[in-house]
UniProtKB/TrEMBL annotation:
Name of the protein in question: Dihydrolipoyl dehydrogenase
Disulfide bridge positions per record: C49-C54
Gene Ontology CC annotations of this record: cytoplasm
Listed GO biological process terms: 2-oxoglutarate metabolic process
Entry annotated with the keyword Protein biosynthesis: no
Active site: H451
Residue numbers binding NAD(+): G188, A189, G190, V191, I192, G193, L194, E195, E211, G278
Main location as per UniProt: cytoplasm
EC number(s) from the headed UniProt entry: 1.8.1.4
Cofactor binding note from Swiss-Prot or TrEMBL: Binds 1 FAD per subunit.
Other facts: The active site is a redox-active disulfide bond.
Length: 479
């Protein structure tokens, strides 16, 4: 038997690495097992998020956005740059540098905090033992008082469109296109599909998005989703709702996709196809036969509200358990579990987790939509404010979108905030903090905001809940 630890974490994504660092900070002897190997054959930390998810996608979204700014908008504000051309190889180089800095940072944090990094694949055995199979096939077994499983998720594949090297790809392949595809298909107009579709649309692809559902972004407030759909359409994203992909064929290095919509069966041909139909929990080779850790009916590791599995002392967090598949949700669960292991009281507020789609403008929300609240029988009052009436947004030449605050009609407590705008992903933190503190719309309305700032649109939306926005024709007389 090799070393014994207080905590062994399996997986070093944003769930696992945060759990490991927090556990070590709390004085627990901690190890973290990671099997991810990069293109150079080196074990890297950071998981999906840093290697093929949040971070590389944001690098490409930022570079492609800057390209569009230079191509379409600099001349509007008095900067003549001629006709810019995208250098895709250089963009990937930048993206790789960003990944390297991030993953290197996690390894350095492990060292600084005294987390033992174990390289290889971890398997939970009975009696809280973890077997680690190194990249050379060597096995070692470690004992732990507590185990935290943070094995993450992988992209869902669907039978109509099996992945085909370089032609039909998942999100990871879509971050690697060496050239801008002329005709690009995207299956799924969810968060990841919209972001990757936007990247390549900005760089020149004709992008067609095939989405089975009839509703666009059903988790977003209807007013904000409708405005987003209009704005993305204006950018050239051809989003086809009620369109279910039923098959595909590779012909002459092209992808012929079969789909069904309200009018019947149809076909469309692409140069590349991205399959973005969601992610599933990853638990392969993770649990020994007598580990005793149960999965639920959808393959997620079954946990309670505080991420305890069916085995005492074994916890699971992040994408491999129920809840939203988001990096920050995984990290918060990681901190909660480390605190619980160290004997502290800890819990998560699953009602105040922000979600962001990093399109341009960004879409960000927290809490209920107006429709959710009404469906739950809650009487609401809402306030909306357009960024076209915000001085800073106009000065930024980015005045598209609006912010909406949803509050309980009786108590004025904020139930949700939904925004589409430049930097909505930053602005939404105000809604999260407000909800976390149980604020009313009036609390925001009575707060002094810096001028000029795009945050003032949130202030105005909160004022508008009672019909008293300043920079908008008022609906009600002030009492
Ligand atoms: P992961 O990040 O998947 O990490 C799990 C780790 O466990 C991996 O490193 C894996 O190698 C390792 N592992 C698994 N099994 C074993 C084993 N048996 N032994 C050893 N190691 C193992 N989320 C956001 O919040 N914001 C975004 O902007 C965002 N953008 C995204 C963009 C894309 C293209 C994708 C694909 C995802 C995006 N996500 C985003 C989702 C986000 O990446 C995930 O929610 C997050 O990474 C989940 O963290 P995790 O720690 O649970 O799992
Ligand atoms: P998300 O869960 O946000 O990643 O989004 C995935 C999207 O893919 C969902 O909106 C699904 O409706 C959509 N989807 C899944 N299967 C298909 C299919 N066969 N054809 C078109 N869209 C699909």
């Amino acid at each position: 038997m090799a070393d014994k630890f207080d905590v062994i974490v399996i997986g070093a994504g944003p769930g696992g690495y945060v759990a490991a660092i927090r556990a070590a900070q709390l004085g627990l002897k901690t190890a973290c097992v990671e099997k991810w190997v990069n293109k150079e054959g080196k074990t890297v930390h950071g998981g999906t998020c840093l290697n093929v998810g949040c971070i590389p996608s944001k690098a490409l979204l930022e570079t492609s956005h800057k390209f569009v700014e230079a191509r379409d908008h600099y001349n509007e504000i008095g900067i003549e740059v001629g006709e810019p051309t995208p250098n895709v190889a250089k963009m990937h180089e930048f993206k790789e540098q960003v990944i390297a800095k991030n993953v290197g940072g996690i390894s350095a944090l492990f060292k600084a905090n005294g987390v033992t990094a174990l390289e290889g694949s971890g398997k939970v055995l009975s009696s809280k033992q973890v077997e680690v199979t190194g990249h050379d096939g060597e096995k070692a077994t470690y004992e732990a008082d507590n185990i935290v499983i943070a094995s993450g998720s992988v992209p869902v594949e669907i039978p109509p469109t099996p992945l085909t090297e370089g032609l039909i790809v998942n999100s990871t392949g879509a971050l690697e296109f060496e050239e801008v595809p002329k005709r690009l298909g995207v299956i799924g107009a969810g968060v990841i599909g919209l972001e990757l579709g936007s990247v390549w649309n900005r760089l020149g692809s004709e992008v067609t998005m095939l989405e089975a559902m009839d509703t666009f972004l059903p988790m977003v407030d209807k007013d904000i989703a409708k405005e987003t759909q209009k704005l993305l359409k204006k950018q050239g994203l051809d989003i086809r709702l009620g369109t279910r992909v039923t098959g595909s064929e590779i012909k002459d290095n092209e992808v012929v996709v079969k789909y069904a919509d309200a009018e019947g069966e149809k076909e469309i041909t692409f140069d590349k196809l991205i399959v973005c139909v969601g992610r599933r929990p990853y638990t392969e080779a993770l649990l020994g036969e007598d580990a005793g850790v149960n999965l639920d009916e959808r393959g997620f590791i079954f946990v309670d509200d505080q991420c305890r599995t069916s085995v005492p002392g074994v916890y699971a967090i992040g994408d491999c358990v129920r809840g939203q598949m988001l990096a920050h949700k995984a990290s918060e669960e990681g901190m909660m579990v480390a605190d619980i292991i160290a004997g502290h009281k800890a819990e998560m507020n699953y009602d105040a987790i922000p979600c962001v789609i990093y399109t341009s403008p960004e879409v960000a929300w927290v809490g209920m939509t107006e429709q959710d609240a009404k469906a739950a029988g809650i009487e609401v009052k809402t306030g909306s404010f357009p960024f076209s009436a915000n001085g800073r947004a106009l000065a930024n030449n980015a005045a598209e979108g609006s912010a909406k605050v949803i509050a309980d009609a009786e108590t004025d407590r904020i139930l949700g905030m939904h925004i589409v705008s430049q930097h909505a992903g930053e602005l939404i933190a105000q809604g999260v903090i407000a909800m976390e503190f149980g604020s009313s719309a009036e609390d925001i309305a009575l707060t002094c905001y810096a001028h000029p700032s795009t945050s003032e649109a949130i202030h105005e939306a909160a004022l508008a809940v009672d019909g008293h926005a300043i920079h908008m024709a008022n609906r009600k007389k002030r009492k």
